[in-house]
Design a protein that fits this description.
The chain is α/β, with parallel strands linked by helices. The protein has two domains: 186 residues, 3-Layer(aba) Sandwich (Rossmann fold), CATH 3.40.50.2000; 174 residues, Glycogen Phosphorylase B (Rossmann fold, 3-Layer(aba) Sandwich). The protein is built from 14 helices and 13 strands. Helix 11 links the parallel strand 11 and strand 12. Helix 3 packs parallel to helix 4, helix 8 crosses helix 12 and helix 11 crosses helix 13.
Length: 375
């Protein structure tokens, strides 16, 4: 029998959002007779707790991670310093732990390439981002990413950014397969009137996840309620204040529930009639859409990025023109008048998502990639 090989994962956060859940799925789902995971995180958080509870070796240390707030000379200086520390510290860790492969789980995490070189191992750089708005920097960064031995991309839309390199599409798997909690209890818990048409949006509050698009659409949907489940990055908390101000200006503040991050996704999904994913920039493959579909929810999504790879129009959900609050309002208004259609679309979404994005498929394809690089 061949020896079990160690895989060192580098990751950019420590929460329980989409990419975090994908890392947890990978690190805990590997075939223990072939691979074992070691994980490096930039700070403590729920993800670190979940990994340790599953018996995964976790190292918490500063990591070089690109964020919008660091796109300045001073910020890039801090990133460069962390990058150098990654190379030295994690390179030594990789050698002492006998690491066979380095897997950087997001393309904004920088140190993995240097660590793999120091350790003399293949480097897998997982691309979970679409770099719209960074056209000035993208050609150079694309060349940097393409130095990896493999570039698994979470969607065809993500892979389309590359004109060359070791690119392949490996769709995410369902890191969470929630069931909808009972409607009445969920609505009572979230202060949603029983007769209201409720639209949930799950995901981190950001400039491009489309919370503002849903709030604007709400102004054309009398009586409808928006459930915003998610929080902003620590250095972007102004975004929630701006959304609250927008809701007040439009006169819908009393119909927008800011729920913060919720571990009880089942309650949010149980309370809503439909789930909106109104991303204003191309979203690579939002786990919120996967999880909502797997729970049997009708998903109304912007027609861009990886969302059309999840939502089949008029079969498992509805697509609308991105950045068009009026188009979202029309789509939601039509669904409000057709509860049977909502139910049928949700049932079809559940069947397709649970099959096409099964976690076993992600794990099998990822380990096939490891085998290919190592054998």
């Amino acid at each position: 029998m061949s020896a079990v090989r160690a895989v060192l994962y580098l990751h950019s956060s420590a929460g329980r959002y989409g990419a975090d859940r994908q890392l947890l799925l990978l690190a805990t789902g590997l075939d223990p007779e072939r691979y074992r995971a070691i994980v490096a995180l930039p700070f403590e958080g729920p993800l670190a707790d979940d990994l340790r509870a599953a018996g995964v070796e976790v190292h918490v240390r500063p990591l070089a991670v690109l964020r919008r707030s660091l796109m300045s000379p001073a910020g890039m200086g801090r990133v460069a310093a962390a990058w150098a520390a990654d190379a030295g510290g994690l390179g030594r860790l990789a050698r002492t732990r006998g690491v066979s492969l380095v897997h950087t789980n997001t393309s904004v995490t920088l140190g993995g390439a240097a660590v793999a070189r120091i350790a003399g191992t293949p480097h897998v750089w997982h691309v979970r981002e679409i770099y719209t708005g960074f056209e000035r920097w993208w050609p150079a960064y694309r060349r940097f990413l393409s130095s990896a031995d493999a570039l698994p991309c979470v969607s065809s839309a993500t892979a389309a950014q590359f004109d060359r390199g070791p690119v392949r599409v490996i769709h995410d798997g369902l890191g969470l397969q929630p069931e909808r909690a009972p409607r009445a209890a969920s609505r009572a818990a979230l202060d949603v009137p029983e007769d209201a048409f409720a639209v949930a949006l799950l995901g981190r509050i950001s400039e491009w996840k489309g919370q503002d698009v849903l709030i604007r659409a709400l102004a054309d949907l009398p009586g409808a309620v928006a459930l915003l489940a998610g929080s902003a990055w620590r250095d972007e908390q102004r975004l929630e204040r701006e959304l609250r101000e927008l809701a007040g200006e439009l006169g819908v503040a009393d119909r927008v529930r800011f729920l913060g991050f919720r571990d009880d996704v089942e309650t949010v999904l149980g309370a809503c009639d439909v789930v909106a994913v109104p991303s204003s920039r191309p979203d690579p493959l939002p786990n919120a859409a996967l999880e909502a579909g797997a729970a049997g929810c009708c998903v109304v999504a912007a027609n861009l990025g990886g969302l059309p790879e999840i939502v089949v129009p008029e079969r498992t959900g509805v697509l609308f023109a991105a950045n068009a609050a009026a188009a979202l309002a029309v789509a939601l208004a039509e669904l409000r008048q057709a509860p049977d259609r909502i139910e049928a679309l949700g049932a079809a979404a559940r069947e397709r998502v649970r099959t096409h994005f099964a976690p076993e498929r992600l794990l099998a394809r990822t380990q096939e990639l490891y085998d290919e690089l190592l054998d």
